[in-house]
Amino acid sequence: MTVGCFISRVRMLTALSFMLLTSISSPDASGQAANPSPPPVPRHDTQQWNDVQLIVPMTSKADFILLGTLRLGRNLTRPVDERIGISFSYHPTKSVTLAPSYLHIERQPSAGRNFFEDRVAFTAAFRAKKYVSLAPGFLYINRHFSVGQSDLEKRPSMAVTFTLPRTRFILSDRNLVERRYRQPQGNSTRYRNLLQLQYPFLVQGKHLTILASDEVTYDSAVSAWVRNRFLAGIRKQINNYCSADFYYIRQNDGRARALPGDFNVIGISLAFRLGGNITVGDKQRQLDLLDDDDDDR
Q1: Which among 2, 262, 279, 291 would be 20 to 30 A from 244, CA to CA?
Q2: Cα–Cα distance between 31 and 34 in angstroms, integer?
Q3: Which residues are paired to 166 by β-bridges?
Q4: pLDDT band at 180 (very low <50, low <70, confident <90, very high)
Q5: Do the beta carbons of residue 56 and residue 274 sit within 8 Å?
């Protein structure tokens, strides 16, 4: 081999090695193609929700409650929300209810984007007068996102509910103020007003209840009314131990980020009580399960 031929081969190998190293280390080359950015979370969605609660009496004043949820989304093509949790409901007196709870949530709002939450909550409900109740509460949320981010939220709240019971219907107006201490997004205060109607009636000897509610939310972080959620449905008591709510939800929220803000939902919520007749409180909890505080803004 001549010296000139050897030098030519060395130059060729050097050039090929440089090209290979450049292609590996370049941020615009194969490394980025192997890990493309996930698509953004869609603003609109159509979903189907399924909620189940199993109530197990412990004593005459205390219940243990097992909660489960499965939600289909991305226009009904795959699961996007799975939940499991436990709760206790303790009634030291007829006018006081104490309710600690834990809930674990897994979410997949779009392809390549997922996160999970752990929620610990405590609520104390007091019936101050015949038609007025107070419910101070505290919610702790720990979120972890697939993109490597995480956040913490501590949320004290106070709800005042005015109830107008009549022989043919029950109308209630809940006024909820919550302070959100969030890391790293920053703090904010929200006001949520929920107007709810329950109208029992008979159809061929079967007991049914019309359900209707509308909630509007004001957020101090953006100084605007950010959300409206409307619900309409029918409740049917299957037997003495089971109640089913069939409902439609329409939500408009143009400022949501980690979850779709505008969506249509068809859902069913089931409540089962073991060893006893299902109660008015059990049925109300079915509606309360839908009030899930899904908001990361």
Answers
A1: 262
A2: 5
A3: none
A4: very high
A5: yes
Q: How far apart are CA 16 and CA 231, in angstroms?
A: 65
* Distance, first Cα to last Cα, the chain: 71
- Which uninterrupted H or E stretch holds 140? strand 132-145
Q: Could you give the CA distance from residue 221 to residue 180 in angstroms, rounded to a whole number?
A: 10
**H/E run at residue 189:** strand 188-203
Q: Residue 48: which residues within 8 A CB-CB, separation 6 or more?
A: 71, 72, 73, 76, 265, 266, 267
- pLDDT of 32 reads 44
Domains and CATH numbers, the chain: 48-288 (2.40.160.40)
CA 261, CA 275: separation in Å to the nearest integer? 40
Q: Give residue 157's identity as a one-letter amino acid code.
A: S
| Mean confidence (pLDDT) of the chain | 87
Is the distance from CB of 245 to CB of 211 less than 8 angstroms? Answer: yes
C-alpha 104/C-alpha 86 separation (Å) is 9
At 8 the pLDDT is: 56
Residue position matching structure tokens 């006893």: 276
What pLDDT, on a 0 to 100 scale, did the predictor assign at position 13? 47
Identity of residue 90 = Y
pLDDT in tens, 28-38: 444 444 456 77
Specify whether the CB–CB gap between 47 and 264 falls below 8 A. Answer: yes
225: Cβ contacts below 8 Å, ≥ 6 apart: 216, 217, 218
CA distance 208 to 192: 28
Nearest residue to 124 (alpha-carbon basis) of 135, 138, 108: 135
Whether the per-residue pLDDT at 25 is higher than 50: the answer is no
Distance CA 228, CA 211 (A): 17
pLDDT of 42 over the 90 cut:
no
